[in-house]
């Protein structure tokens, strides 16, 4: 019984470790960038606006014809807090592409972990939890 408990316990620990390591998993922002730059149809990108300076001006950009050629460069800007893990995930994605992609990542705020925890602490005090 003890050996079965140890085996089951070690399986849970290993599963937890596998979940912590991102590996080949792509975060939502990386999946969206992939779908947009590779011209893949996806429900995640249906509502995104499309602006291509190479195409003729259209009255409504949502009805504008889209280029069929994948993009090699992208600018990703997060309104609000960006994270280092998103940046790392995008960098790894770009590096592993057969045709190297250049992705520029930015956000209105990129707090250090200690600052983020401090902000959460202030929010917790303000809400009286």
Mean pLDDT rating: 78
Which shape, going by the Cα principal axes? Answer: extended
Kindly state the number of beta strands: 2
Query: What is the straight-line distance between the termini?
Result: 42 Å
Instruction: Work out the radius of gyration.
Output: 21 Å
Please tally the helical runs, counting DSSP H or I stretches of 4 or more residues: 4
Poorly predicted residue ranges: none
Label the structural class.
alpha+beta
Q: What strand order characterises the main sheet?
A: 1-2
Largest sheet: 2 strands, parallel
In N-to-C order, the SSE pattern is HHEHEH
What fraction of residues sit in β-strands? 5-15%
Q: How much helical structure, as a percent, in the residues?
A: 40-55%
Describe this structure in words.
The protein has helices at 2-20, 28-37, 84-96, 113-126, and strands at 73-81, 102-109. It is of the alpha+beta class and 129 residues long. A two-stranded parallel sheet has the order 1-2. The longest helix is centred in the first third of the chain and has 19 residues, at 2-20. The protein is extended, with a radius of gyration of 21 Å. The model has no long low-confidence stretch (mean pLDDT 78).
